Amino acid sequence: MADHPRREINSIGSLLSIMASARHDPFARMLNVDLIAVLVAALLPWSTSGVGIGMPVWLAALAATLEPRPFLRSLRRPICVLPIALVALAALGTLWSDASWGARLYALSPATKLLVLPFLLYHFERSTRGMWVFIAFLASCTLMTVASWIVAIDPSLTLKVPGEPMDRGIFVKNYIDQSQEFLLCTVVLAFPIITLLREGKIRLALLLTLVAANFVVNMVFVVVSRTALVTLPVMLAVFAMAHLKWRTNVLLFFAAVIFGALAWTMSPQLQATTDKFTRDYRIYKELNQPTSIGLRLEYWEKSLRFFAEAPVIGHGTGSTRGLFEAAATGPAVLAQGHVIGNPHNQTLNVAVQWGTIGVVILYAMWFSHFSLFRGEGLAAWIGLMVVLQNMFSSLFNSHLFDFHEGWMYVLGVGIAGGMVLRARSEAAESSGTARP
Asked: DSSP secondary-structure letter at 127?
């Protein structure tokens, strides 16, 4: 027993030694790139600045391992071309925008994270440690549930900035980001749980079930966003259709209905979240007050008008706020008087600025990534759920361009996509169909 701590210290020392020798050892350089990605994934639920610092460091570490010719060949694939094309269009859109240059560059910035996707796809097509990154994210989100329960009991322990709304059960960031994390982890875990049960590995399946249940119970009894509440059934339905027999689906449907009814009955938080849908809409319609749903309807209606005015190439990068300022009527306390730079819908966000051309590129990118994950295996399942979550939640938010959800998409698609490409390449080689 006394040797165990010593072995652990030796293994940590060996790992640090490998990292330190990266300049001379190709294996160590690859390991460093993987470990930085693991750290970024672990920081994502907790810190925006950590991700903002970590990704440039990751790119710098990757530069030491990058082989120019294979990398340039990888850029020809639609899964890489389309994100680059969307960013290029956003950059070109600054040329015909009427906004100030500060507003144009500020609006361009959220799209630039998509440029990291080709690098992630390239690296994790070579690396064998992509699953490390997803395990780190899952572990970090699990730890976040612990913090959420603690803050739900004692709100004074939150680390949110003073003066911001103190959402119940939110340790850092906000309830929308937290719900998106917990939702993704819950649905992704369904695949390994079913696989382990089929293989007879009951204990590990039970452990993962408890982890998934922890996320669900937290969303039911502490806090959940309405976007996550609407998205969860869609993602679970995709899982059921893809991996379960129809008889099992029928039983699970009735079980889900019963569980949902019980959860709604027992959770005042869930009742308040669902009741807010109809209450917000009624207040907006009857009193013209700026409720969450009412403002979204207002933003979408005006955005459709802006799109109709410039349907081909849009009004240009950063033009959205100026358009809403010109269209505002009445005082700012009323819904019609609100001014926003983001219409809370990814399609409209793109359509207003870059027209039909932007929308076509956006959906072509989504569907190319969606098609990448049509296959078996955990990596394909993770990527599929990342794309599906982003596409569906972007009906109610501009999640591709939001910092947290945008990086969830870039990291999830980039790493899972690289793993899927690697698996296909290995399968082709083993079957003798690989290209010379």
From this structure: -
**345: number of Cβ within 10 Å:** 21
To which residue do tokens 């010593």 refer?
Answer: 6
Amino acid identity at 146: V
Question: What is the distance between the alpha carbons of residues 153 and 430, in angstroms, rounded to a whole number?
Answer: 55
Instruction: State pLDDT tens for residues 247-299.
Output: 655 555 556 666 556 655 665 665 565 656 566 656 655 555 566 666 777 88
List of E strands, 70-187: none
- Give, as one character, the DSSP assignment of residue 111: G
CA angle 373, 60, 109 (to 5 degrees): 70
Max CA separation in the chain (angstroms): 75
Judge whether 184 and 114 are in contact, CB under 8 Å: no
Interatomic CA distance for residues 135 and 269, integer angstroms: 30
Contact 65, 26 (CB under 8 A): yes
Strand ranges inside 85-174, DSSP E:
none
Q: Residue 156 class from Cβ within 10 Å (0-12 exposed, 13-18 middle, 19+ buried)?
A: exposed
First to last CA, the chain: 52
Q: In whole angstroms, what is the distance from residue 313 CA to residue 359 CA?
A: 10
pLDDT digits (tens, 9 = 90+) for 32-47: 999 999 999 999 999 9
| Residue among 325, 431, 411 at smallest CA distance from 137 | 411
How many Cβ atoms sit within 10 Å of the Cβ of residue 376?
11
CA-CA distances (angstroms) from residue 433 to 124, 125, 374, 377, 427?
22, 18, 20, 21, 9
| C-alpha span between 90 and 94 (Å, rounded) | 7
> Backbone phi, then psi, for 314, in 5-degree steps?
75, -170
**What value, to the nearest 5°, has the Cα angle with vertex 36 and ends 30 and 42?**
140
Tens of pLDDT, residue by residue over 203-229, are 999 999 999 999 998 988 888 887 888
Q: Model-level pTM?
A: 0.85
